[in-house]
């Protein structure tokens, strides 16, 4: 009696030249860029976001790039709505090959200045929304024997950020979710759970987020192009053995190393830089941003890279030096 050997792993595109790809948070930023990147490869796309008016132009742009696209208004905090999204994708295209959890919102401000409702909404969107998507996707991946689940995390899943407590909590939780799910699918060679973790991305999300600081948020340069994040996700679909975590951005490695070696010192340094940035920032009204109502923009870029473009390298060097100081400071106080 012979035992059949397991099938050799193959990439999503090798298994299906026109894969079915579900993207949540598809109406702008990374989600929009990712939809276009997959459309250029002939993918069949199911695009999800809260606002149907923003889905329509993105779907149209994807068709112009050579893909098929179906827009389905979905709030990922509603578990039933996410299951309905998966059901519609299967009914329309027959299966799901790739599921990208791309929703991400934030609320910036001192923890006790941010309303509890805002903290709750961030965690519901960033963590529970991904749980809902993962549950819908993995149920179908197990049944069909293959599939790629991509969770968009960020450096915030490894290095906590001051004035973004709920965001940090959601990203740390999402990191744990992914690691747990990877352990659960080790016996399924054609099912993969992957994380993409960029540093600051120049997407509209930074402008759309809730802001309770009373100051205009100006993220540090250099920033990651959303298209680079999109290409990293497409590369996962091209790989027979996609990597578990893909890092993007100049500060990813020094940030992780500094926090691992001296978490308290790094936290002090990050707090100092955050306070400095807020003191220098222009006043801005308090806003709930897109926490409770969807945005109406479909742009990919946030426009932040246009400012001080020539000083990007200087800012990057200062950031690395700051992290090194944080490491030294923390070492001296242990």
UniProtKB/TrEMBL annotation:
Q: Which GO terms describe its cellular component?
A: membrane
Pfam families, per the entry: adh_short
Transmembrane spans: 20-39, 309-329
- Record's keyword terms, sorted: Membrane, Oxidoreductase, Transmembrane, Transmembrane helix
Report which superkingdom the organism of origin falls in: Bacteria
Q: What is this protein called?
A: Short-chain dehydrogenase/reductase SDR
Instruction: Extract one GO molecular function annotation from the record.
Output: oxidoreductase activity
Instruction: Specify the taxonomic lineage.
Output: Bacteria, Pseudomonadati, Pseudomonadota, Betaproteobacteria, Burkholderiales
Q: Family membership, please give it.
A: Belongs to the short-chain dehydrogenases/reductases (SDR) family.
What is the species listed in this Swiss-Prot or TrEMBL entry?
Acidovorax ebreus (strain TPSY)
